[in-house]
Specification:
Layout (H helix, E strand, L loop, with lengths): L1 H36 L2 E3 L4 E8 L11 H21 L5 H24 L2 E7 L9 H19 L5
Antiparallel strand pairs: 1-2, 2-3
Helix pairs in contact: 1-3, 2-3, 3-4
Length: 157
C-alpha cells in the first residue's frame, strides 16, 4: 500500500510539473505567433485565439487588485502542493485532481509574476464567455474531477 501511495505521489507531482510546463510553452507560442497577428479564428469563427491580459482571477474577479491575487495564490498554490503530498486520506483520484489544480495555479502565478498579468488566449464565440487558457482548463477539470471523486467515494463535502 505504501508503494502505491508513493507512486501516486510521484505521478501527481509529475502532473503538476507537466501542466506548468505545457501552460508556459503554450503561452509563449501564443504570444509569439498569435500576438503578432492580433487574433486567429478557427472552426468557422467558433474559436478565437487572441492575447488578453487578465489581472484578475476567474471571470476578472479582483481585477484591480493584482497584489492581493498574487499574495493569495502564492499562499494557496504551495499549500495545495503540500496537501496533495502529505494528506494521507486523499485517494489517488483526489491527488491527481489536486495536481491539475495546483499545476494550473502555478502556471497562472508565473504569468502574474513574470508578465504582470495572466495571459488568456482562447475565446469561444458561440456564447459570451471570458477568455481562458490551458491552466484555467486544468484548474476547472481538476475541480470537477475532485468533486466527482469525493462524491463518488461517498465522502461528505
Amino acid at each position: 500500500m505504501r508503494e502505491k501511495r508513493g507512486f501516486i505521489s510521484i505521478a501527481a507531482n509529475l502532473v503538476v510539473l507537466l501542466v506548468f510546463i505545457a501552460d508556459q510553452v503554450i503561452k509563449h507560442l501564443i504570444l509569439k505567433y498569435v500576438g503578432s497577428l492580433g487574433h486567429l479564428r478557427i472552426c468557422g469563427g467558433f474559436v478565437d485565439f487572441s492575447v488578453v491580459k487578465n489581472t484578475g482571477m476567474g471571470f476578472g474577479i479582483l481585477g484591480n487588485h493584482q497584489l492581493v491575487v498574487v499574495v493569495l495564490v502564492s499562499i494557496l498554490a504551495p499549500a495545495g502542493l503540500l496537501a496533495m503530498n502529505f494528506v494521507r486520506s486523499l485517494t489517488p483520484g483526489e491527488r491527481i485532481s489536486a495536481a491539475l489544480i495546483v499545476g494550473g495555479a502555478f502556471g497562472n502565478l508565473a504569468d502574474r509574476i513574470c508578465r504582470g498579468a495572466v495571459v488568456d488566449y482562447v475565446g469561444i464565440n458561440f456564447f459570451r464567455f471570458s477568455p481562458f487558457n490551458f491552466a484555467d482548463v486544468c484548474i476547472c477539470l481538476g475541480c470537477f474531477l475532485l468533486l466527482f471523486s469525493v462524491l463518488a467515494g461517498g465522502r461528505k463535502v
